[in-house]
Amino acid sequence: MKLAGKHVILLVDKGFEDLEFWVPYMRLVEEGAQVVVAGQGAGRVVTSKSGGLQAIIEREAAQLDPGEFDGIVIPGGWAPDRMRRDKGIKQLVSALDQAGKVVAMICHAGLVGISAGIVAGHRATGSQGIKDDLLNAGAAWVDEPAFRDGNQVWGRVVEDIPAFCRELVTALSG
Fold first, then answer.
1. What is the SS3 string spanning the chain?
2. Which are the catalytic amino acids?
């Protein structure tokens, strides 16, 4: 188990992309990481974009201590557009990034990174729908399935989840 002893936040909100949440969650648990599902409103049940799966927000993101965690994973879907508006979420993501902790974003999750002010000067990818947003925020767009740029891990879309998870596990275990 490559991630035994690691503590990772997995952000979620209504409209999350099913596979971009559940596959990384299961992969992290499989590798021994302690995963905390966080967002707005501890105890709230949120439904995925497809309406097929749900997740429970275990902890309020704004109340988490970045120093207690090794990284954060932000799935895509419609949820990032909601999460990027929350001051506590933006501060959490920014604090983790500034501390050199792993910040992993896939698909539309780059919207949270943009609003947290952490993408400028980094290579970035995601859904084509946020390409212009990333470029306008000062990121360098890269059309690759998944990669790591410093402490940031990027994934493009659902089809790239296996590559994203490999990069994520490698970043957290390093």
1. CCCCCCEEEEECCCCECHHHHHHHHHHHHHCCCEEEEEECCCCCEEECCCCCCEEECCEEHHHCCHHHCCEEEECCECHHHHHCCCHHHHHHHHHHHHCCCEEEEEHHHHHHHHHHCCCCCCEECCCHHHHHHHHHCCCEECCCCEEEECCEEEECCHHHHHHHHHHHHHHHHC
2. 108
* Single-letter amino acid, residue 19: L
> Which tens digits make up the pLDDT trace of 128-156?
999 999 999 999 999 999 999 999 999 99
Reported as a single tens digit per residue, the pLDDT across 21-65 is 999 999 999 999 999 999 999 999 999 999 889 999 999 999 999
Do the beta carbons of residue 37 and residue 17 sit within 8 Å?
no
pTM above 0.90, yes or no: yes
Domains of the chain: 7-173 (3.40.50.880)
